[in-house]
User: Fold these one by one.
Assistant:
Number 1:
Amino acid sequence: MIKNIYFEEKVENHNRAQEFFSRFPKAAKISCNHFKEVFNPSGQNFRLQKKNPSLILASQDGKKVHPIPSKYGVGGTSNFYFSHLFNCLYDCRYCFLQGMFPSAHYVLFINYEEFWDDIRNKADEVSNSPSWFFSGYDCDSLALESTTGFVDFFLPKFSKFPHAFLELRTKSVNTRVLKNREPLPNVIVAFSFTPEEISRQLEHGVPSVSARIKAMHQLATLGWYVGIRIDPVIDCQEFESRYALLFHQLFDKLPQDSLHSVSLGAFRMPYGFFKKMDKLYPEENLFAGKLTKNKNSVSYELEIETKRLDSCRSMLLEYISSEKLFTCEMS
Amino acid sequence: MNFIVALSCEAKPIINELRLTKQFSPTPFEVFRNDFHQLVVTGIGKVAAAAATGFLLGSSTRKQEVQTYLNVGIAGHGTLQTNTAFIANSISDDQDKAIFYPPQIIDSDFELSRLCTCSHPNQKYEKGLGFDMEAHAFYSIASRSCTRELIQVVKVVSDNEGQSFEYIRPTTVTEYICNHLPSILAFAQELDALAKEISPDLETLGLQERARKLHPFSQSQIFQLDRLINHSRSFDLEEKHLIELIEKSNSPKEAIYNLNTFIDQSRILS
Ligand code: SF4
């Protein structure tokens, strides 16, 4: 339940802002000049705010579509991301958002139409090859859909733009918005997973692995392309058997032709983010693991990282062809 | 909890309920304490509020724990009835551009309202806005050393369009605060519970303290030692073993090495 809605003065009369105000009539409405006045001040505690984040309605005025590092992607050559929302309903302990953002408030940029203009322009610029747009970089693409209506707005747009691909990355089982419409060949619903035991320890508030698998299978059966994201790969006891079981559960009964791609990603993040996360959760086992600082980034010791990624890769290749398997590196 | 209150008549119900005792050591402000709380009576106005908050920040006796700060007092309001308590969710100032937005984590029954801190008593009651004379200065100082979620402002409306501030009596002020005292104290207690959640673990601090005394560790070694002890606590390793291991080592360097090797075996998620 949202108790406080901050809004930038310039969006007060925007239809989407008005909808929010009427949907949460009891919430206190507080105006600000710019969302950063509320979101950016130093001396906020992400861990505490995560208990009860407020909503900030804002307009993204600058660049809305950003290029993605070349080693990140699932087959396309022109890859971009956009962030209509900062922060997430869930609370994964490995999530870099808690190291990157000063606040856990949700910032929703409600000028979707302008996001779409920028996406379309970008797609037109590179019209000789399909361009990929990744949402869910600074949030979960579906978890807050019933509040944001983001997917509901964007799907009809992408349906008319077949050379632009959209990846919705999620851990949510809130897939009604997709089930309610015809599948689109240029939209991939990518679910992220860690083994159940890890999920229970680290992915707070996230639906169970089995519920997510079920949601993914349902969408695949309905004809949606799905993606599987094993990202980040987390070192743990009984690593092989846990990941083997996860992969079995994921691919068992999944219609092969609905699987768009599988990607693997190492646990890796900028040192500054890590330091902040470690300070927020000094008791967290994950941060006391065999991690190492290399230049400006923190990751598992190279030997562990290589071994774990190799092991996942060979297990995955028992189920899928190598063309569908990608290793993503953010840095 | 640190209470910052402008007037004695506002402070009285809190002092009585929490059985705070007046501190007689020479201090520039009236300070009242018990084992868990302190309260400062600041006097009216921004300068007094800023100075008293700064004084309280410096005089905390529980330095290892994360502190909480609550400004309690009366305020005028453009919409709310008198004797209504509210939490300030935005705090502006009539002479300063900076606006504070205290993050609201606790679900309380209080109303939420914007608040403007004025240099002089306010006679124009703008709709939806509260008016006081201290909150902004208080927040600006407290937020320099404490996390913002744990600095809050609760005001009880004493005057509005229909009831001018000129007629407010100290007894009425005390009565207003008294009326909301249970909610104010419950709110303070919840803030303290949040603070506890992010305060350093006292047992870990104690263990680090003991370990540091076992060898002449350098500053950077102390940093490593503290971190290793932190990790050992994450993995529930036995305190006795750690201390033995450090004791048996022949030098600070060896102690760090041994500790690291010992903890390394556990560094994996279960
Ligand atoms: S679901 Fe994704 S965005 Fe949300 S907390 Fe977890 S890792 Fe972060």
Note: The pocket of iron/sulfur cluster is lined by residues A 88, 90-92, 95, 97, 139-140, 171 (CB under 6 Å).
Number 2:
Amino acid sequence: MILIRCPYCDEQRPEVEFVYAGEAHISRPQNPNLLSDDEWAEYLFIRKNARGVHYERWVHAHGCARYFNAARNTVTDKILMTYKTGEPKPSVEEIAEAAK
Amino acid sequence: MTTFRRQGRGRPRQEKTVRFSFDGKEYAGVEGDTLASALLANGVHLVGRSFKYHRPRGILSAGSEEANALVAFDRGPGRVTLNVRATTLDLYEGLTARSQNYWPSLKFDITEINDKFSALFPAGFYNKTFMWPKSFWDWVYEPFIRRAAGLGPAPSEPDPDHYTSAYDHCEVLIVGAGPAGIAAALAASESSARVIIADEQAEFGGSLLSMPEAAIDGAPAWQWLESGLETLRSRDNVTLLPRTTVFGYYHDNFLGLAQSLTDHMSEPDPKEPRECLHKVRAAKVILATGAIERPLVFADNDLPGIMLASSAQTYLNRYGVAVGDNAAIFTTHDSAYIAAFDLSDANIRIAAIIDARATVDTRLIEEAKKRGIEVRAESVVTGAVGRFRVKRIRVNRVLASGVSAPEMIDCDTLLVCGGWTPSVHLWSHSKGTLKWKSELGAYVPDRPNENVICVGACNGEFGLKRALETGASAGGGAARLLEVKEDCGWSGEVFGALPTDRNETRIKAFVDFQNDVTAKDIKLAVREGFKSIEHVKRYTTAGMATDQGKTSNLNGLQIASNALARPVEQVGLTTFRPPYTPTTFGVLAGAQSGDTFDVTRKTPIDPWAVSAGAVFEPVSLWRRARYFPQTGEDMYAAVARECKATRESLGIFDATTLGKVEVVGPDASEFMNRMYTNPWAKLGVGRCRYGLMLREDGYIMDDGVVGRLANDRFHVTTTTGGAPRVLSMMEDYLQTEWPDLDVWLTSITEQWAVIALNGPNARKLIEPFVDGIDLSQEAFPHMAAREGRICGIETRLFRVSFSGELGFEINVPAHYGLTIWRKLYEAGREFNITPYGTETMHVLRAEKGFIIVGQDTDGTVTPDDAGMSWAIGNKKLDFVGKRSLERPDIVANGRKQLVGLLTADPNFVLEEGAQIVASPGQAIPMKMVGHVTSSYWSETLGRSIAMALVKDGRSLEGESIYVPMPGATIEAKVGSTVFYDPEGERLNVI
Ligand SMILES: [Zn+2]
């Protein structure tokens, strides 16, 4: 059971309080009607499935109920850092720094 | 009776006699024994039969790695635990255990014939043999395998014991209370750090308990142990957990510990829990889990009397038990010599030490000479002879090519040692990496993935001195050099299968004792093309028994590596997974069994339903009344009566479980527009609308009636099961896609009780109780919503109908729910008010063709598939799922569409889930074109009705489709999903 720091509560809490919510930094297109079928399919279905650092969303379901972002190493299953929704995607270097 | 007790040997203890029973025979042991040591003290070596070949088996080890001595441990009715290791079972007065895997008796086992016909059971036997036909699995193969394999009969009664659990937190968790673990605990607890030290055994000390001669700083090691434990016990910051197995190591230093509390007690207090699950979060973990001795692989190496050398040493030095009178030793490692010397010093004859290595430490040879023990270097054991106990062994010299002619040596015990395997299981659970250390012939910890450190033998650091040093240093202790006296050399060589002069296809040299896997099986798997050890494991089942191959993995790996002619590190290592040793379901479940297994949500009206004799059903976590049978009624009779009464006069239904979300804020209507397919901007205050919600992929996710209570306030209802995911999806979009919208979402499911009244007399019933709302048809038409009061209590009153009758949903604050229900029920007697449950609700809605999301839809159904395009606001530019409705596969022909079905035989009620074909009499397999989603007897219509998803279903209107059922193929006609009152006139009863 991993530990996750909720960036809103600013507390490290056990995984049971959270629910995974898929890959992060995929914005819903402003006007879906303008997208081709392929573009829409890309938005809907295509995900990175990264080996290593993965940007993903979690929701503090049994806490503040806020959605936030996390960088997790999918090999070690370590959450490297978490940050608020809307904050820019951190670089690998920033993540490495935060993970220390 | 012969006794193998050796006076003056063993741990100091009060010699308190304990009587116990094994296989119905009474024996005496001594308090502090395990079942295994007590049996050995009585000269009993034969304790069971093997799993596949039913070969006689004895006691291999003295610890939790035991692969052979598995017994049924019987603590009374419902309290039989199967496959318990006799070596870990603490003896108590009256202990009862039985051997397993035989019929009719341990000494005469008919299934032993499996052994003689073992050519029929090669590697992959199960995969190869039980292939066809599939149906044979249920009634031929599986029963046969189960009976033959003798996994033992599971108890049929519920577990009468109870279990407890605790969350523990500490700075340092130490796993293993051998010398390394205790040294670590002493060092770590010098500060105020909270320290937990756990060991699976009853007594702390680990390998030290088998080393009476060792000395630390000039004093006997046992004295060091006593004072060390005394110190630990005196420190408030230390928790000592004996009989506690750390069975799993999970993320971020979260570990599972199963503590046995009462299994060792003769008469435990039934109020006390049997086991406790400690869920420990540790800042740092120190693994001091030791190492496991490896057997050697040669013909008939599974005979009772063949035992790990260090185990014989343990039985002697710890329990004061001689494992035989005349022991031979077969080894490839120095450590077995020390065992031989200990036994010899206790007047056990040592027949010979057979060492496969060419060169042996001269000091060991000297020590052997002193005791008159013959050492045969560069020799191997190529067979063991005996029926239920080894009588003699076959010994050959290793030559440049092959081996010499055999020579027979008499012995009643053969002690084997093929080197040592560090216990890296928990390290591997934690995803630490391993590296191959060829001089040890074993994998040792490499890079950690958690804040964890391995000390002593589990890190490949053998010997008492290294254990104490690495332990103390990991515990943060100053590096103080201890002076340690110990006898043991720690050098050895690793062999896989040993050389032999015998036809290898004719012998059984066991690698995995518990699963009866031989060296031959592993070689066969390699010949058949399996190259990865993970595949070899699954094909041969080596390492897949309940011991997870603790004694066998490395031998199997070595044999596979030899057969593949590839280095071991390239063949890999199978993955260790929790639990380290078998763990009871009871301790994992803890208090969550029976009524407390899961949350049961009950509505405020539930007590009334109980008193009215309702039959309940679970709907998500809710418990809902399914129907209210009267005397003599079954469900069908009750539902028919409830339906009739509702359609004719008045039914009352507890709809509290409906999910409810309040959507509030200046942008509430814009938010609703984006979340639901329907248009909301023009919905007037005081009006309701049926809302349909899609996922972004265009499929129906949920539905429910939404009332607009004010310009900026919507009372949204969801399906019972869908409430959490609907709120969660709303929050997701609001927080992450449209944070600019000023909207607040609040779950109000638990705040409002909902009483649904349906039937032509519904208005007549409530009219006298309602204040502040004009209920007339004109002022309060169908799909109206108002706030007012009922019986003096605030209410959100909706005029909606899920039955097709005049209907009201009365929302009242939850804690008034029961009172209002009772009042309405009493007043409703003049209208023959009839309580109904979910089953009648389903029938009434099906008669009207209203869908149930999750029953008539399955996550691949679009609004058009469900015939609900009318619910889509076509003028809206966007809503969740809109773009997907244009996806090529969603606009394509040939999709399954929801239709109504009427069976040709009106009395036949189709099976929900039944498959549908276009024409009868097709060759099997028939082409399936859909399935039945809802099917009921309609009392109102006097016939059966059904809904189904059928390929291009709406184009088949008026045509017949067929439902093949056992015994008959049922014909049904495709039609509208609305079976009753298609014009909806019944809604408008005045
Ligand atoms: Zn939070």
Note: DSSP finds two helices and six strands in chain A.
Number 3:
Amino acid sequence: MKLKSFSGGLHPPDSKEYSAHKPIERCPLPEELIIPAAQHIGAPADICVAVGDQVKKGQVIANANGFVSVPIHASTSGEVIAVEPRLHPMGRELPAVVIKPDGLDQWHESLRQNDPEQLDVDSLKNLIRDAGIVGMGGATFPTHVKLSPPEEKTIDTLILNGVECEPFLTADHRLMLEESERIIDGINILRKVLGIDQAIIGIEVNKPDAIEKLTRDCAAHNIQVQPLKVRYPQGAEKQLINACTGRQVPSGGLPMDCGVVVQNVGTAAAISDAVRLGRPLVERIATITGPGIVEPKNLRITIGTPLQYLVDQCGGLNGEPAKIIMGGPMMGQTQLSLDVPAIRGTSGVLVFREEDLPKMPAGPCIRCGRCIGVCPIHLQPTTIAAYARLEMIDAAENYNALDCIECGCCTYICPATLPLVQSIRHAKGGIMAKRRKI
Amino acid sequence: MLAAVLSIGGIGLVAAATLGLAAKKFAVEVDPRELAILEVLPGVNCGACGLPGCSGYAKGVAEGTIAPNLCTPGGSETVEAIADILGIEAITIEPQVAIVACQGDNRKATNKYRYLGLQDCNAAQKLADGPKTCPGGCLGLGSCERACPFGAIEMTAENLAVINREKCTGCEKCVAVCPRQVIKMVPLKATVHVLCNSHDKGALIRKYCQIGCIGCHICKKTVPEAYVVENFLAFADYEHIENAAAAIEKCPTKCIRDFSTGYPEGSSFPPATVPVKHPAA
Ligand code: SF4
Ligand code: SF4
Ligand code: SF4
Ligand code: SF4
């Protein structure tokens, strides 16, 4: 049987063997938790606690700031010891609440368990928003916004992203293997909110055990498990929709334009906790891995734990770190130091040493066309990047620079090691600035 | 054959006659002063006057809708010439020149990470606010060099922008493009400048830059009227600059520079102005 997939893309060495077989382990609480107010796409939350306050686990410490925003919660009980700018994974100092855990890890009294069967759609959505649920794949887009499509869009399919196409990461893989009941419960809630029946979980065939387990567990729930060919960036929304349903999201459009809502399996699990247990998003699963880590692991981490502490739980550093990445190696963000905290979008922490990094300096484009061949959006990365370098923003716009999903395939494949994605992103910034001016 | 020659020739004649007539009938009256002004403008279309090109500016000046002294590249000569054409009194302009208020190149200042990306200051600035540890220092990736219409900026081999005061016309294109606001416009006649753009405290600056202003007030104590120290950063007061140079020797980090004499004792400048090669498109 020919496996489903999308066109374009590539298959980098997946390097998942470091951690794929490691069961999820709970990471203990560190000395202090650094919880930034900006952990999602959209307006940062407004901090509403002060130094000296005693907080309980799950208590709101920063209020949502508008519709595309979510509240931030204390991830354990303890004392607020500082409210100040701290180094954020974005690379600059941003407002954060620093909590010294009291070791009791006590949930806030106001949190209530619910039966999703008894609740109407609006209260479910409110619970999801108030629990601070965002896309757990790393994009951190507030989930309640995705679940509120405008009237005129009809949604008929829910796709669950269990692809985890980024090399190295195995957190979703372990979650599907070990906690499928949370995922399935989350899917049932999502289906109720969207008022639809059809749900598909897309999983790449390099996780046969997860496919088998979920196929077995989902049988009773009318959820389809769709095995997919291993191909990066299959976990990108538009590619996943294309792979699972054959539908195409129009240029500049959203998944809802072709009747689909996509959620990560981790998000589904978090939704189950938020609704059934009334527990906000204060922990997640992340893969701490890479050749620079002594003993790679899948950890259940408390939001706000400094990366250094996570690395220490994994046997520490194996040699001098030369590059630290939060997220996957293709789309993750390089970090300035291990002092930054893990946040809601931290799907992994990768550590590489000097000898693991490529050395080739960027040279001129040799016009091999490989970047064009791998681009899943069928753009011409080399052309857009050249226009970006020359500041020819209009020309870059005509070549549809804004459709680039920044998957990094072109940069990965380029034999001249040109920073193509960065150039395209530069052009996108220019186009957006120009549009704002008009 | 003959028919072809005649018909093509005929079409040509008719078209020429029509065009000739149209040019007469629809001729646009151009103010002769506008043409004369365009003649005396430098013609580099740099945009310093606020209009996209010299011809637009010439038109505006002739119509009296825009001030006649906005062409900084042309300097006072141009202003006088325009005043002559318009028959008005010349309003002199103080010639301005750009300076890069930073000497922290790769030898003198540290970077917080190794940057291997697009050789463009604005692109680099978007990654954790740029690789240079100093929040105000020159990134040295040459965005200003490429923006300067007069070729007045060169990048040193150690990644620092250096402005040629002879070539700079004060058009401010570089000021607009620099993401770190490290290029400042100053009066051409002022030659003494504090070349630092960081308001961080001295102790912090010492950690990341050997040639930054630490706000120690020594310059101000030496020549009180010539310097102001604001927020841990000294500035020369261009109104009272006569004796400013006396402080150069005293400055512990040698960040004050007199452009009329050369680089101070103990500094490793002037930097070699070997142009940096950028990866081509
Ligand atoms: S151009 Fe954009 S979408 Fe295409 S391969 Fe490069 S990063 Fe991916
Ligand atoms: S892959 Fe690199 S070298 Fe090849 S065409 Fe694209 S930009 Fe040029
Ligand atoms: S002066 Fe500004 S634009 Fe010029 S190289 Fe330095 S940082 Fe870049
Ligand atoms: S150095 Fe700056 S102000 Fe001077 S001519 Fe060049 S762009 Fe204009």
Note: Chain B has two domains: 31-93, 96-258.
